[in-house]
Amino acid sequence: MKNNGLEDVIAAETRLSDVDGEAGRLVIRGVSLDLLVERATYEDAAALLLDGFLERPVTAADLKARLGQARAEVFAHIHTADAALLNLPPVDAMRALIARLPDGEDFETTLRLLAAPAVFLPAVLRLQKGETPVAPTPSLSQSADILAMLDASLPTREQVSALDAYLVTISDHGLNASTFASRVVASTGAGLTSSVLAAISALKGPLHGGAPGPVLDMLDAIGSEDSARTWLGQALDRGERLMGFGHRIYRVRDPRADALKGALAPLVMTGQVDRNRIRLAEAVEQAALAILRERKPDRPLDVNVEFYTALLLDALKFPRAAFTGVFAIGRTVGWIAHAREQALEGRLIRPRSVYIGPLPQAA
Ligand SMILES: CC(=O)SCCNC(=O)CCNC(=O)[C@H](O)C(C)(C)COP(=O)(O)OP(=O)(O)OC[C@H]1O[C@@H](n2cnc3c(N)ncnc32)[C@H](O)[C@@H]1OP(=O)(O)O
Ligand SMILES: O=C([O-])CC(=O)C(=O)O
């Protein structure tokens, strides 16, 4: 019997994260999201996720130092970004550059893969604007360096904390589509680079990690609080989905939405983000929730992580075409941890299909 979209199928056991869709709770390696986001840097979360999945133990301080070196090494590949590659959308150009890196399953490969999107995305964005890429500063944290490479200046403390909060928040999320892709590839023994490339390919679709750019397009198109209800109603009349709403697992508000809203607050308080944009977003969110309740009374649809992702990444001055690439920077550690977990299990993932095509004609 076919299961549409594999809904509710259990395809893995994992020690990495648990998504409770009824309670609206996310736990990453035994730590609840709110605690993790309050206390952890990107390196803390990466060390937590990778614990036990590398050939040797690694601390957050180790990772910070090794990642700094890895970013410098990966930056040496930037010169291979030719005109054809730079004509691609940023996430595709980033993926193409990662595809040129060696495959493997060891710690060096892991470091290279964690560093690669963090270096390639800012470099591609600068090259696409006709600017020179900024070399990484190995002594900086991953978040601080990403922002420095993006903007050619040292970020503020609030900006670094906000990016850390984002990268931690989206570091892992159960068996989502891109993580499943990573595990399928890992189960064939193909190597971590191959797993990450498959995962990026799954992530970029608008139903998954491609949603936050369209969220910002929607806010721009709505323009003012007064227009929200009419605009959203017309979009639903056209059969469109409201980006940043709905989820396969959550039947209540995605807990990451409030984690990211909280991460935006210091930027708002210090005047580093346009308050009007936030006010408009809050009004659109309320209007969308009300209209979705009216139109889809049988299907609880609430805000998902992508709505406040759009606002946070916009506030950090990432262009909207790059949002999916920033998601990939944060999720790569989850993809790698899942790939390692799957590889340790040692069994090929190979479900069955039911043939519904024509049978051969009898002779
Ligand atoms: C990081 C992430 O991946 S988070 C998700 C990011 N994606 C988005 O924000 C895109 C918008 N959201 C969606 O398309 C969906 O909610 C998904 C893809 C995330 C989850 O979809 P599914 O679990 O497959 O839900 P499904 O397709 O079964 O939808 C159930 C019903 O809710 C409706 N629905 C679901 N999401 C939305 C939405 N955002 N806007 C309007 N209606 C929606 C569907 O049209 C469907 O209605 P119907 O039964 O009348 O046909
Ligand atoms: O869990 C999912 O299906 C999608 C999602 O929110 C994520 O990958 O962060």
Automatic annotation (TrEMBL):
Any one cellular-component term (Gene Ontology): cytosol
GO terms for biological process, alphabetical: carbohydrate metabolic process; tricarboxylic acid cycle
Keyword Membrane listed: no
Keyword Transmembrane helix applies: no
Catalytic activity: oxaloacetate + acetyl-CoA + H2O = citrate + CoA + H(+)
Active site feature: H247, E306
Keyword line: Transferase
GO molecular function: citrate synthase activity
Superkingdom: Bacteria
Pfam families given in the database record: Citrate_synt
Pathway(s) where this gene product acts: Carbohydrate metabolism; tricarboxylic acid cycle; isocitrate from oxaloacetate: step 1/2
Similarity-based family: Belongs to the citrate synthase family.
Protein name: Citrate synthase
